[in-house]
Amino acid sequence: IGDSMRGRLRSEDAHLQLGGLNNYLDKLAEADRIIIVGCGTSWHAGLVAEYLFEELARVNVEVEYASEFRYRNPVISEKDIVIAISQSGETADTLAAIELAKSKGATIFGVCNVVGSSIARATHAGAYTHAGPEIGVASTKAFTAQVTVLTLIAIAMAKRKGTITEETYRQLLIELEHIPEKVAKVFENASKIKEIAFIFTYARNFIYLGRGLNFPVALEGALKLKEISYIHAEGYPAAEMKHGPIALIDEDMPVVFLATRDSSYEKIVSNIQEVKARKGRVIAIVTEGDKLIPGMVDFVIEVPQTHEMLTPLVSVIPLQLLSYYIAVMRGRNVDQPRNLAKSVTV
Ligand code: F1P
Q1: How far is the CA of 13 from the centre of ligand 1 (A)?
Q2: Residue-wise pLDDT tens digits, 305-324
Q3: Best label site of 5, 169, 293, 309, fewest CB within 10 Å?
């Protein structure tokens, strides 16, 4: 989260800090349905937004891979609002999805990083993430910046709709201000994450599991590992494990659990037990001070406690670091992974 984002969060009036979207907050709050489109990491940020928009603003949300949406014949009309998310603002699939939705009369909002990019220009209005240039191909700070902007949109909508109390509104904004220092605290655990990376440098597969807001984080953790280390990794909702992936668990399978203290905690604990019973090697991302999970798993990485709705902003950081260290130890070029382009323009 860059300085400009920090400045943005300093204001109590989150709804005044959303750039071009400020003029459209009524329209957003009145929407019956919001369709979110994006690719890769941006799609994962969209999935986080689905939880936030539904939970806080009680609006119907659909999240679509732009790369599929553009080739379907989706039912969409002038009543719909589409939010397109893109770091580069140049992703061809996302641009095509926007054009399709526009041709059916929908209103298109953008959450982009690159000012004046093609996607920013194709939308009716939007909010920039201002995360600064992503030097590497794989999105990292772009993800946290996208989630931050989407959180502000959720809070602004919820305030207008009266779906959150004044107290929750204030709590969320105050806690958002503390996120940068909490992210910095995760970096204090970097040497521990590096040790874990060393142990798993030559793993052939990884599974990432999370529930609720930590489910998209599990997907993002798996994507980061794939992109920069070329290790096969899959993210799943932890509750989905019993419907198939559990067959993969044995003593050679590292399983990363997003197990922060939130409303899913008890259920995640029983998912961990299921994996340990099958001898899986568990790395758990836990909230600082957790007394139970460290006694059950092979490795723990602590993250600071935050408001449940803001969890992804903190819990994704150790996963990005784990991927980074594993990739470096495998001798990969983390800034320019093979086969990947910063902007996928075809
Ligand atoms: C989407 C994306 C990135 C990924 C890689 C390829 O880009 O899938 O998430 O890390 O760079 O492109 P964007 O639309 O967010 O720029």
Answers
A1: 30
A2: 999 999 999 999 999 999 99
A3: 169
Q: Which residue among the candidates 159, 182, 226, 342 is catalytic per the annotation? A: 342
Tokens coding 82: 């589409």
Number of domains forming the structure of the chain: 2
* Alpha-carbon 166 to chain mean position: 26
Residues 147 and 191 in one domain: no
Mean pLDDT of 22-51: 96
Is the pTM above the cut of 0.90? yes
pLDDT digits (tens, 9 = 90+) for 52-108: 999 999 999 999 999 999 999 999 999 999 999 999 999 999 999 999 999 999 999
Domain assignment present for residue 180? The answer is no
Same domain, 27 and 143: yes
Residue 168 phi, psi (nearest 5): -65, -40
Contact indicator for 161, 25 with CB cutoff of 8 Å: no
Q: Please, which residues bridge with residue 41 across strands?
A: none
Ligand 1 centroid to 102 CA: how many Å? 22
Q: Which amino acid is at 338?
A: R
> CB of 36 within 8 A of CB of 50?
yes
- Whether 342 maps to a domain, the answer reads no
Looking at ligand 1, which atom is closest to the CA of residue 119?
14
ipTM of the complex: 0.96
Domain, as residue range, for 29: 3-164
Percent of the chain with pLDDT over 90: 88
